[in-house]
Input
Amino acid sequence: MTLASLRSFVVHTLVIALVVAMLLPLLYMITMSFRSATEIAQQPLGLPETLRWENYATALSSMNYLRSVLNSVGITVSVTVLVALLGSMAAYPLARNTGRAARVFILLVALGLATPNFVTITPIYVIFRDLGLLDSYPGIVLAFTALNLPLAVFFYVGFIGAIPRDLLEAAKLDNCSDWQTFWHVVRPLLGPATATLSLFVMLMVWNDFTYPLLLLTDKDKFTVTISVYRFVGNQNVQADVLFPAAVLGSLPLLILFVLFQRRIVAGVTAGAVK
Amino acid sequence: MTSKRTMFLFTLPALIVLGVFFVYPIVLTVQMSFTNFTGVGQADPVGLANYERIVSRDRYPAALWVTVKFTTVVVLIQTMAGLFFAAMLHRLPAIRNLCRAALFTPAMMSFVVVGYVWQFIYSPFSGGLNAALTQVGLEGWTRGWLGDPDTALLAIAFAHVWMFTGYTTAIFLAGYANIPAEIEEAGRLDNASSWQRFRYLEVPLLAPSFTINIMLSTIGTLKTFELPFIMTRGGPDGATRTLSLEIIGQLFGKYRFGFASSLSIVMLVIVIAVAVFQNWYLRRREDVS
Output
């Protein structure tokens, strides 16, 4: 072995070792989920003596898992569709217009991008309570939509601005109405942008903790995150409860990630860089 | 676009949603911050009393200080760790995609799961960290990581960095992909060492990635709530009580809606000021290099 290839081998091994070290907490979570609380108390780092699937059976039955996955899917998909639709519609005239109204709207969007949701959480809670929107699907969907809409408008304005003007002029000459131009000419061109944006929004909504914590108290409406939180929180943090719940809580997204990792990493990165 | 009217119709749905759930709440926050509203009944105007309270008690500047410390530590370590992994993986194309995906995996998990798992790792008796330290002969280092005011904030910051280092790495790698091949080639022909190329070619050319990474992580961390809420509830002795934790505590622990609103306004001003400053400073740096 030459010196150069020896060096390359050492560097590769070192980097791989560091990456594996970063994955240790994940492996720890999975390993611990198959052990009993007594096993962990006696031997905090050992491998499972037997694979205790019953840990999962307990978690599955008492944390209302399937229901909460369905809730998360429903809320996430609704928010993503609404954000993409309302965001692209609003961006369409804004990308072509430089009037004062358009500038004010863009300024509003920029402010929305920078505002942490803690600034609006108090009044949103009060408004929701007064309108009877606490503990309702439409309520939480609208709250998430408003939170993500500024990003979507900002994002789409950039993409629509890059569509050649001739294309839209041609549509006008063909006697397309503004709506027809938007729906049949602009919208199909936004496919890649929508895919990237949706990834971003889905990740954010699926994993969000604050809104469901404050706006949902009905067990049947819990999202996955909040159902993990309530389930583990109620149990005085026992290892054989915590770890299976943690695995189940991350499982849907981890499966998606294993299947589509390349697209997800590329999409989320592109979304951030835009 | 044919007329002002159609333009208005296209933006109308977004305007309604943003109006009701963003603009109106902000106006309401400002208004409530000058009252003693408790969530129900009448709100009496109290002038600047809420703001005076924020500056006159040690508790609130302390929460702000915790937030600043947390943000500084996270942004520094995360940027450096992300840059390190990106620089290494850029040089190792054979394992680049696999390692990038592996590092990114924790970002797919929720704060709740990450918080609970790390809380257990840090726990004094059956936690993984103390057990690992004992096994390598460092018994002296073991402690209740989250129960000790000296280590609690750092421990949470570390969990946060662990979660998002892959994200930072991916953004830096995207920046690397934008460096023209000829420039890299020129550096190699000049016999520059790997370190020299990194220091004098890559770091300056990665300036836009620095801007994105630093701004994203700063804004994300200044409002941090989830991990301290789940792992320590702000304890021990306020060592991990961030500004957002204080807001939620005032809101749902003490029903001081008016006071919580004034804290929110302080937070808004800070976040916007930091974002504007960073944007100006980092973009200027991009132009220089």
The domain at 35-288 of chain B is CATH 1.10.3720.10 (MetI-like fold). Chain B has one domain: 35-288. DSSP finds 13 helices and no strands in chain B.
